Amino acid sequence: MMSDELEQFEQRLRRQPLTSVPPEWRAEILAAARARQPQSACRTAPASSARAAFRDRLAAWLWPHPKAWAGVAAVWIVIAILQFSLRDEPAVRLAARPAPPSPELVAELRQQQKMFAELMGPAEVSPIDRQRSLFPRPRSERDLDRVSYAA
Amino acid sequence: MNMPAGPELERLYDEHAQALHAFLLSFTRDPADTRDLLQEIFVKLARDGSLLHGVRQERAFLLRLAHNAAIDLIRRRGTRDRTRDHFAAESVSPFAPAADPDEATFRRELSTALAGLPPEQRAVAHLKLWENLTFEQIAATLEISPNTAASRYRYALDKMRDRLRPLYDEMKRAE
Q: Which of B10, B35, B161 lies nearest to residue A1, judging by beta carbons?
């Protein structure tokens, strides 16, 4: 059988009408379905219908371009994450940086150092070392100093 | 869609019962089983209001329910009722009776040919020929791939054609 003959055969099959549902079934089946409808479901119907209506409205609103909406949501999430991370960063930086000593504090420290020197007696402290000890420096430089002293 | 109330159930019945009935009858070939399965589907719809929520193609969804229900029935019956099933194939037709004797003979033979197909091929053939579904829609309804649907349809059509060829050729000559 050629393909056009097969198509004719197919068309002939399609034309065969199917038997109808016995009309008396309708009332019987619908009555049985209603009879087995759970009562609890009927009681909760208003709340669930309100939720369902909201879901339907939301779905109808979002449906035309769900991927586009998802993309927009993703972009907003990324923006929010970046925003939070950038807001935290300056505070960390300020906390990490040592505050410069005020002139009063420097004068006080010098005074204390002088008193300490007087109590301890004469010692050879070079002006450069005295200057160094007054100002706190980065940890890495202090380590280098220690290494150089040890050497 | 929430719990289908009376009018909603009625609408579903009026719109889809005919198609479900024909599909189930071609599966079970037994009016009592067909009625039971049809009722089972509507009871399920009445019980579970969320069943049709978000469903875009009610007909395809209900046909899937019908297919699953029919497969469950076949499994429940098992071997014991296969003989009965075969016997039923001889007597019950999913096609409307015809006044013309030649047409009546053709429908009877077609019904027998359809009954002789494996259930999975019969389901695809029915959905393609009498529900006009595409292979993609059939695949979605029966949860198979479109290629499987197409190959099952081809096998089914070949078998029916082989079975009906003498009668079909004779009728064509008479035309």
A: B161
B1-92 folds as Rna Polymerase Sigma Factor; Chain: A (1.10.1740)
pLDDT, tens digit, for every residue of B140-170? 999 999 999 999 999 999 999 988 888 877 7
Determine the Cα–Cα distance for residues B38 and B20; give it in Å rounded to an integer: 7
Cβ atoms of A33 and B51 within 8 Å: the answer is no
Chain A hits for B47, CB-CB cut-off 8 Å, are: 36-38, 41
Check CB contact under 8 Å for A41 and B3.
Answer: yes
Which DSSP symbol is given to B144?
A: S
Return d(Cα B141, Cα B124) in angstroms, integer. Answer: 10
Cβ distance of A9 and B6 shorter than 8 Å:
no
Domain B97-175 has CATH 1.10.10.10: yes
Q: Could you read off the pLDDT of B76-129 as tens digits, one per residue?
A: 877 555 555 554 445 688 888 888 888 898 899 999 999 899 989 999 999 999
Q: Is the pTM of the predicted complex or chain greater than 0.95?
A: no
For A139, the token pair is 């940890």
Question: A-B interface: how many C-beta pairs under 8 angstroms?
Answer: 99
Q: What is the value of ipTM here, to two decimals?
A: 0.81
CA of A78, closest CA in chain B: separation in Å? 30
Q: Domains of chain B: which residue ranges?
A: 1-92, 97-175
Task: Answer with the residue of higher pLDDT: B144 or A70.
Answer: B144
